[in-house]
Amino acid sequence: MNTLNDRPDVRELIEICKGHKVYIQTHNIPDPDAIGSAFGLQQLLLEFGIKSTICYDGEIDKFSASKMLDLFGIEMFPDEELVDEMREEDYIICVDSQKKAGNITDLKGNEIAAVDHHPTMYVSENVEYMYKDIRLLGACCTIITEYYRDLSITPSQDVATALLYGIKMDTLQFSRGVTEEDIMIFAYLNPLMDADKIKVLEMNSIEYDDLKAYGAAIRNIQVFSYLGITYIPFDCPDAMVAIVADFILSLIEVEVSVVYCERPDGLKFSVRSERNDVNAGELTAKALEGIGNGGGHASMAGGRIAQNVVDELGEFRNNVLTERFIRALGLKF
Asked: Do strands 76-78 and 52-56 pair parallel, antiparallel, or not at all (unpaired)?
């Protein structure tokens, strides 16, 4: 496990933030790991008298993410509500993302820090921060929890529960991208969390109407060797697209799954890989090169194509996209 000798010291971030107006910004359409990380960091800064505002762009998905906000009383503000409030000199801490990464809106404030568990290879240009803690772990919540442990501060029960839930969700119940540090942090958080609230978060997370997404994915699936690719011809939340991608990956024949759905502004992709020789982030970036953007971890990734580009792909766009992923994998079409 990393020690304070070979990673940033959160005390530096605390000192940097003192005396400034601070915002904690998650990636767009925040998931449980982003929300748990932002909430945990916000409460940690409060221990040192530093108030902060959590902000984001996009919508809060109606699944586990929105349930977290209600259950823990977390306040998050969409960027449009902060237009008249935020100033250029205000400090922004990017959490579970990095500036110029393609999944976070560039707000008016000054991005002085990034705390993230995604690789920097998908950031479009080099960004200088006053504080940077970027480590390839299963979840960003793991990093935030380490801050509490390093400072000998015990997180509240709600914070511990939110952090643990974020880790469980981003690692698919500790079965995807999990590291030794994630496991050690689970052991640290487990006796501190509220088991009843975890149960509430994990039960009844899918609505009746969302069964249509499963039905559409099943109807449209194609399998080429170990690749399973399908599309949902209507808009549905990011969380649902990810859930369907995990579902497709559960098929015996499938070791790499690609699911994409219609959006008013284009197409949203969710990609999963359980093969050691296929990096989901690299695959997505390669398949969408020139027509969109994508990236992520070795086992999970996401991507987008803007609507104007989708229109240019023509009537047989699904065939074009399927061929792109097949060729990116080096398979036969």
From this structure: parallel
Tokens found for residue 42: 């916000």
Q: Which amino acid is present at 185?
A: I
**Do 207 and 239 contact (CB within 8 A), yes or no?**
no
Give the rounded distance of the alpha carbon of 251 from its chain centre.
Answer: 24
Q: Domain boundaries in the chain?
A: 4-202, 208-329
202-211 long-range contacts (CB < 8 A, ≥24 apart) are 202/64, 205/63, 205/64, 205/67, 206/63, 206/240, 206/243, 207/62, 210/236, 210/240
Sheet with 266-273: strands ordered across: 222-224, 227-232, 256-263, 266-273, 300-306, 293-296
4-202 fold: inorganic pyrophosphatase (n-terminal core) (3.90.1640)
Helix, strand and coil in the chain, % to nearest 5: 40, 20, 40
Predicted pLDDT of residue 98 = 93
Instruction: Give the pair of three-digit tokens for residue 319.
Output: 């065939």
Cα–Cα distance measured from residue 87 to residue 250, given in angstroms and rounded to the nearest whole number: 47
Domain 208-329, CATH? 3.10.310.30
Which tokens go with 254? 């499938």
- Residues contacting residue 297 through CB under 8 Å, at least 6 positions apart: 118, 119, 136, 177, 280, 281
Residue pLDDT, tens place only, 157-210: 999 999 999 999 999 888 888 999 999 999 999 999 999 999 998 876 667 777
| Rounded-to-integer distance, Cα 260 and Cα 240, Å | 11
